[in-house]
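Give me structure tokens for this 176-residue protein.
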Amino acid sequence: MSRNLIDLHPEVHWRAKRWLEWNEQAGCPVLIYRTLATFPEQQALYEQGRTTPGPPCRHDGKSWPIGTCPKHPLGATITDAQAGESYHNYGAALDGVPLVDGKPDWDDLRKFHVMGELGEDLGFQWGGRWPHRKDYPHLQFTFGFTVHELRTFYEFGGLPRVWAEITVKNEKNKWP
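Here you go.
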């Protein structure tokens, strides 16, 4: 799994760089911890908490170590997206966490809101707005394509084909 901005589609790459700058200027530095994910990497994340151990779950006011939660014996799930169902699989998404004194701060939702809103100002969709399962660290740029359309392109030419289709559509529409 990549953390490198260079692994993002060039249009997403420059927006991510600008987003990092804007967060820094807002006093909310960010660590990007996930960009491009292969299909097997995405599937492995999906399996966590379902068929393989995931992280400890946190609910009902406490953290439940693996094997102790009656609702989630294998721990928390990481994602609802299987292989091919995530914009990460196509270089069009990134995940970031705010930094405090150089360390990730997973608990300050206020900072995630700053990050998400700055991302939206650059045209990203922010996972913190999702109605079902909030994904505060997540930003994606769809270019008007569904993941199912991107997967079809991928099946007929891999990531180069996906990026070619995105580039053609991007040139036609000149996204904001």
